Structure formats: structure tokens, C-alpha cells
Amino acid sequence: MVTVGGWPRNTIRQLCCQQTSHLQHTCHSPELLFPLTAYRSLLSCIRRVLHNPIPNPESRISNPAMQPYQREFLDLALARNVLRFGEFTLKSGRVSPYFFNAGLFDSGMALNTVGRCYAAAAADSQVPFDLVFGPAYKGIALAALTAAALAEHHTIDCGYAYNRKEAKTHGEGGALVGAPLKGRILIVDDVITAGTAIRESLALIRHHAANPAGVLIALDRQERGNGAQSAAQEITAEFGIPVISIVSLSDLLDYASGHDQLAGECQQLEQYRDRYGV
């Protein structure tokens, strides 16, 4: 029997179809059929099942090497056309067999999932941090979503801040918004290409006498830049901080190899990795 938190999954799924407000109200009733802690546990499991639906077993072979949040992120990226396959000419001139555009995470439900995946990757990394920082522009929303999801799903109530492209000269003024930059700072962004935004963020963090803890991104392409290292490896080598990603090219290959609709893309992905990978 498949269970979640000790509760039969089928039972949870049946309850998901009902209004949970009645169950929450029952928790405060003096006449309880089960202990209050059991009701709270069941409510928690219901939320987990709602957030993590069981994938169609006929469409994909489960890969035990991937975490559930990584698979969920790639499922969402495919469904929203954030991740596409074909031939795409990158700014570097390379022709890539896949393209990732985080700007297409453009609905409330999608953003909710994205925030949970970022938070799960941050928690899973075990990198200690006190504040998440979002470089303008895409990083602003991503860092906010990450901070909220860390508080809701991992009981980590960290600070949140972001920078403006141009310093404000009126009102509160300055180039920073949010919590003061102090302690250990985790930078949150979508991808690292040239690393310009990350380097600017690191300079800003050190200017405020804070310590960079790491960089959290959605996708690590794991391909060489102008030299022998990837952009993520260059950041780690230059600044001595880890670059954490929700998924990498290696994860994408594993995911595609077990996905019926993507099995035909594996050869192109492997050839691209062989040519440009690190």
C-alpha cells in the first residue's frame, strides 16, 4: 500500500476531492474521533498530495537518482514550453538541441511550483544562508518566491532583498530594497550565462560587508564557456562559493531517457554534451 506520512494515498486522494475546511473545523471540535495531531498530520499530507500529483506511470520510467522536486520542475517546464527541443542558435553562436526560457513561468500556479522547487533545491543543498538576494530583473521574483516557499515548506524564515538597476534618488533612495545585506547571502537567479549579473551581485554583497553563501539557479547547462570551464564552474573557482541548480543537463538527459515523448531527443542532447560539456 502506498502511503504518505503514514496515511494511505488513496484515502488522501479521496479527501482531496472534498472540502478540507470541514476537517479543519473538526480539529477544533471537543468531540474528536482521532487525536488533534492526527488530523493535522492528515491535512499536511493532503496538501503534499495536492502539490505533488502522481505522474502517469505509462509516460515515464521513474529515475531514482532524481529528486521529486527536480522531476516536478521538468514536468512543469515542458508543460509551459519553458523547455523546448529543436535547433536553437544561442548568443554564443552554438546550435543547441534545447532551449530554456524561465520567462514563460507566467501564471500563479506555475510560479507557486517554481518557488517550491527553488526552495527544495536550497534546502537539499544544506548550504547555510541568512538571506536570499534577487538580482534585477528576473532574480527579483525568483528570490521572493524562494523565500516564501522556504518559510512555508521548510520552516526557514530568511531575509529577502533585491537590487535596482538604477539607484533611486527620491523616497527611501538607494539601490537596495528589502532586508539589510548582512550575514550569509544566497543569490537566486534563473541561469548563468556570462555571469555578469552574479559578479555585480557579489560585488554589492561584499560592499555591504556581507558574505556570499552561494548561487541558486534553475538550470546548469554544464557546458564550456570561452575556456575549459562552465560559467558555474568559473564562479565557484573565482569566488569560492557553490553554484546550486534545481536541474542540470545531466538531469535533463536522465529525465528524457525515461520519458516516452522525449526519448528521441537523447541522441542530440548527448552529442551536444560530448562536444561542449564539462
Task: Provide structural commentary.
By secondary structure, the chain is an alpha/beta fold. The chain has 2 domains: 3-51; 68-276, Rossmann fold. The protein is built from 10 helices and 10 strands. It has helices at residues 9-16, 20-26, 36-51, 68-79, 108-125, 138-154, 196-207, 231-239, 249-257, 266-276; strands at residues 3-4, 7-8, 83-89, 95-100, 131-134, 159-168, 174-178, 184-188, 211-220, 243-248.
What's this model, at a glance?
Helix content is about 45%, strand content about 20%. By secondary structure, it is of the alpha/beta class.
Specify the CATH architecture of the largest domain: 3-Layer(aba) Sandwich
Structural class of the secondary structure composition? alpha/beta
Kindly state the percentage of residues in helix: 40-55%
Overall number of domains: 2
Largest sheet, described in full?
6 strands, mixed
- Assign an overall shape: globular
CATH topology tier name of the largest domain: Rossmann fold
Provide the low-confidence segments as ranges: 1-41, 43-63
Would you tell me the overall average pLDDT?
A: 81
Strand content: 15-25%
Strand line-up across the major sheet = 7-6-5-8-9-10
For the secondary structure, the number of strands is 10
What tags apply to this protein structure?
278 residues; alpha/beta; Rossmann fold; six-stranded mixed β-sheet; 10 helices; 10 strands; disordered N terminus
